[in-house]
Amino acid sequence: MNTTEVYAPRVGQRPWLALAATVVGAIMVGLDGTAVTIAAPYVARDVHATLPELEFIANAYLIALAIGLLPAGRVADRIGRRTTFMIGVLGFGLSSVGIALSGSVTALIVFRAIQGLAGALLQPAALALLRTAFDAKRLPLALGVWSGVNALAIGLGPVLAGVIVEYLDWPAIFLINLPIGIIAAVSALFAVQESHARDAKVLSSLRTLLTHRTVLVTSAVIALSSFGIFGLLFMLTLYLQNVLGLSPIVAGLWILGPTATVVFSALIGGALGERFGPRWPMTAGLLFVGCGIFGVAGAGQPAGYWELVLPALGVGIGTGLCVVPATNALLAAAGERLTGIASAVQQAGSQFGGLLGIALLGTVLSSTVAGSVPSGTTGVDDIAQGMVPHGVTADVAHTAFTSGMNIALIVAAGITVLGALGTALLARR
Asked: Residue 153 and residue 135: Cα distance in Å, rounded?
C-alpha cells in the first residue's frame, strides 16, 4: 500500500500504564452510555421530550460518533495516536459539562453530538495505543482486559446513575466525566511515546481494508452485538422505571447482572478465539444474544427479577464471547500500519449497531403502541415511554407498552439469530 510507518520503539514505553489510561477512557465512555439510559425518563420530564426526541438525544451521540470514527482513525494515524486520545478524552469531558448545563432538547442534542465527535477521536486512538504499546503475544490479554473493564463500566453505569439521579439529579452524571478525562489524558502522556502512520494512498488503503473479508464479517458481528444490547437496555430502562415503578437505584441493580456478565465472558471469548479461531466464539456469542433477548420478550408481565434477569444474562454472555475475538481478528487483518483505521472501523460497527438498535426498536415500539390503543387516545407518546397519561388507565397504558416492547424485542432477537447463522457460514478461521 506504499505506506511509511513511523513508530516509537516499545522499549521505554509503559504498556500497563497505557492499558490503564485507555481503561480510564473506556470507563468514561462506558459509564456515560448506560448511565444515560437510566437518566432518560428524568431527562425527558425535565426538558419535556417526546419519545422520538428522547431517541434523538440518545442517537445524536451515536450518529456523530459513527460519522466521525473513520476520519478520526486517519487523524490518529497522522497527527499521533497519543495526541488524538488526549484531545478526545478532554473534549469528551468538556462536552459532558455542556450537556449537564443544558435546559432544552436542542441544547442536549447539540452537546451530545459534540460529545460523539470527541468519542470518535478517543475510541480508535485508545485501541491504537494498545496495538502500539503491546507486542503480538500480549495484545490479546490487553484487549481482553480493556473490553472487560469497559463492560464493567457499562454494568456499573446504571447503578452509579441510579444513585446520582436519586440523590443529586441527572446533570451530575455528566459532570463526573471532566475529572475522569483529565486523569486519562495525563496517564496517556506518561504511558506511551507518540506513534504515527503516514499513508501515501489513504483512500486505497481504506478501500482495501473495507473490502477485506475478515473486516466485513467481524464488523458485522460487532454491530449485531451492539444492536442487541443497546436496544435491550433502552427498552428495559423505560419498562423498569415507568411501568414497574422501580427507583433509579433498583433499576440499575436489575441491569447490573446482565451488563457486568460481559466482563467475564469477554475474557473467555478472547481465550476461545486464540484457541479455536474467531468463527465459533462469534457465532455462539450472537446466538446467546438473540436467545437472551427472546427470553426477555417471553418473560411474564409484570416480570419478576429472575424472570427478566436470567434471560438477559445471555445477552451479556453473548456480547463478551463475540466482541473480543472479532476485534482481535479485525486488528490482525489490518496489520499494524492501519491500526488507526481498523480501530475506527471496529468502533463504527459498534456504534452503528447501537444506533440501529435504539432507532429500530423505538420505531417498532411506537408504531405498536399507536396501533393497540383506541383511536383518539391522548398521550400516545407518553404511553410509548411507559407512562400513564391523563384519561387513560394504568392497565391500558402498561399493557400497550409491554406489548410493543415485546414485539420490538422479538424483532431484535430474530435479526441477531439470523446474523449468527450468517457468521457461521461466512467466517473462516
From this structure: 26
What pTM did the predictor assign? Answer: 0.71
Residue 262 above 90 pLDDT?
no
* Three cell numbers written together for 153: 463500566
* Cβ pair 120, 350 in contact under 8 A: no
Q: In the numeric block, which cell numbers belong to residue 217?
A: 464479517
Whole-angstrom distance, CA of residue 386 vs CA of residue 251: 14
SS3 category, 198: strand
Burial level of 297, CB count in 10 A (0-12/13-18/19+)? buried
pLDDT tens-digit map of 150-169: 666 766 777 787 888 888 88
pLDDT value, residue 428: 60
Contact 278, 333 (CB under 8 A): no
Residues of the chain with pLDDT > 70, as a percent, come to 87
pLDDT of residue 289: 92
Q: How far apart are CA 2 and CA 154, in angstroms?
A: 40
**CA-wise closest residue to 232 among 345, 319, 120:** 319
What does residue 102 show for φ and ψ, rounded to 5 degrees?
Answer: -75, 145
Query: 210: which 3 cell numbers?
Result: 473495507
Residues 199-219 pLDDT 10s: 555 556 667 777 777 888 888
CB 155 within 8 A of CB 265: no
Q: Among 366, 322, 144, which Cα is nearest to 228's? A: 322
